Amino acid sequence: MGGATTRAHIVEAADRLFYRQGYEHTSFAAIAEAVRISRGNFYYHFKSKDDILTAVIAARLDDRRRMLEQWEADEPDPVGRIGRFIEIVVTNRADIQNYGCPVGTLTTELAKLGHPALNDAGDLFTLFREWLRRQFVLLGHEAEADALAMHVLAFSQGVATLAHAFQDEDFIRREVQRMHDWLSACAANPGTARHAGNEDAVGPANV
Amino acid sequence: MGGATTRAHIVEAADRLFYRQGYEHTSFAAIAEAVRISRGNFYYHFKSKDDILTAVIAARLDDRRRMLEQWEADEPDPVGRIGRFIEIVVTNRADIQNYGCPVGTLTTELAKLGHPALNDAGDLFTLFREWLRRQFVLLGHEAEADALAMHVLAFSQGVATLAHAFQDEDFIRREVQRMHDWLSACAANPGTARHAGNEDAVGPANV
DNA sequence: CACGCAATAGGACGAGTGTCCTAGGCTCTC
DNA sequence: GAGAGCCTAGGACACTCGTCCTATTGCGTG
Q: Which residues of chain B have pLDDT under 50?
């Protein structure tokens, strides 16, 4: 078993535990037990707990980046791509109901801890934000692309938080459907429209 | 300085610290220092740290309940009342940008800790959910009142999480405006309206 | 076989945690 | 003034944490 493999196992186990139990609440002993190595051996691969966190965030960034690239390859249509993002909360509903959103919960925790890796975790949000923005630009919403991207992000965070709190799958599906409808209206009303215009078109149909 | 006063001070300080630093990250020493009492004295008023958490949650429940009652007294119109709720993220924007939503972040943390007080914290969400539901019933949306209440809750959680992550006040205001427009359309379309395609899609169409 | 290096194990250390215990100060009442 | 009871202070305790140190294993090379 080479050292590189062990290192990957550590990152993998830490990723899962940080997600399920939180960063602070996850001890070295817990990770070591999950990987079945001794606590001491740990410091051969990482020089501190913060170092592991950095590696975990980097791994998540890599993973999500690859996911988004795959979506771009699969879906030529920006609406389909954004739709994929909206569907995340359904696709990952089991984990989300049990542990919340991996990005949102980590960012929130690191902020409360005043942890220096908060900025790195924020890059995860920025990754999605930028990707969504580009899709909305492709839809012809140049001027408001970033605002629309943030709206989609807010949707996913709100749904994830409440689905986690209430363990409600039907709620997820309702909100996803609502968001798909919004996206359709958004795509049907490209270019010139200001934000308020969108609302008028989308609003009544939504209720 | 009577014991009741000290107890109230402890709950107050713990409330603020739990909100800003998280429950687990806040030590007895930190609370004791904030209230200027000794660590030992603590156990005269509370029998454990969990006991303080319970008291803090109870205090928040009291506070929010009073707030909602005040809104009902101030605003005879359900739309105005729901609007007040939507405005929370603007009214409390400073705290939200710095520390997130007090309800959402606490619930998420306690869930990750597997803490027994998670149910109590969930009552905070339920309080708002039920109150919003009643307002939507008053608007004539009996059948979907709960779903609409959850939608408003999801909005507030999503906005709070992202405002916290990105420290973006303009984003808050844009989303609040969007939500007000949605609410207006919602109020203009009372009673009979079904969820407009939502119902149709809850089933297989989603996957 | 002997050597060297990557990899691992396991214990020691100091700091910090929640909890508990005991002694003492305060303020009212008789 | 003395006693009683509420309130407080501060240290001791057992435990866990992240970190570090040293000894030892396993394996490929000369």
A: 192-207
